[in-house]
């Protein structure tokens, strides 16, 4: 908004419908870690938005500080994913909302494969596919 870019905030489950209606022209997400091949780990749900963007022909950008790039990690399968407490899913405050003993998966992050990423934007410049080459060039451009 500060740069006069039209901005609308939506909740995460609205993305597909908004894309289908032509109301989204680009997606920009952050990343906690970016592998050498351009796979990007970010908060859970990012991968889903990337798939939806691809399906609708919408560019999907990752914007992160270059310190998030880990050239020693070859791809996203090597990025450890934090599992959060089951209680975050089974309770709202002190109120239990799921059966006692139910199995819970609660990953904090997911990994978006590089083929869904249009470009990676950093303070050192913009990396484009093939990411192993372009990210290494940015690393050398210190």
Task: Considering the chains and any ligands shown, give keywords for the structure.
alpha/beta, four-stranded mixed β-sheet, 142 residues, single chain
Strand content: 15-25%
Q: Which overall shape is indicated by the principal axes computed on the Cα atoms?
A: globular
Count the helices. How many?
4
Rg on CA atoms, Å: 17 Å
**First-to-last CA distance:** 30 Å
* Low-confidence segments: none
> How many strands in all?
10
SSE order, one letter for each helix or strand: HEEEHEEHEEEEEH
Instruction: State the major sheet.
Output: 4 strands, mixed
Helix content: 10-25%
Mean pLDDT: 96
**Structural class, judged by helices and strands?**
alpha/beta
Q: Spatial order of the strands in the main sheet?
A: 1-4-9-10
Layout of secondary structure:
Blueprint: H1 15-20, E1 27-29, E2 33-35, E3 40-43, H2 46-55, E4 60-63, E5 69-70, H3 87-90, E6 91-92, E7 95-96, E8 109-112, E9 119-122, E10 125-127, H4 131-140
């Amino acid at each position: 908004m500060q740069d006069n870019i039209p901005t609308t905030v939506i909740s995460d489950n609205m993305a597909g419908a908004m894309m289908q209606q032509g109301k989204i022209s680009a997606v920009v997400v952050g990343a906690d870690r970016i592998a050498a091949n351009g796979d990007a780990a970010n908060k859970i749900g990012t991968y889903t938005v990337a798939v939806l963007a691809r399906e609708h022909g919408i560019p999907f950008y990752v914007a992160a500080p270059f310190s998030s790039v880990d050239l020693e990690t070859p791809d996203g399968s090597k990025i450890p994913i934090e599992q959060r407490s089951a209680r975050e899913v089974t309770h709202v405050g002190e109120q239990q909302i799921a059966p006692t003993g139910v199995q819970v998966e609660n990953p904090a992050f997911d990994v978006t494969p590089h083929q869904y990423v249009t470009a990676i934007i950093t303070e050192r410049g913009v990396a484009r596919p093939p990411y192993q080459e372009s990210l290494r060039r940015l690393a050398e451009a210190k």
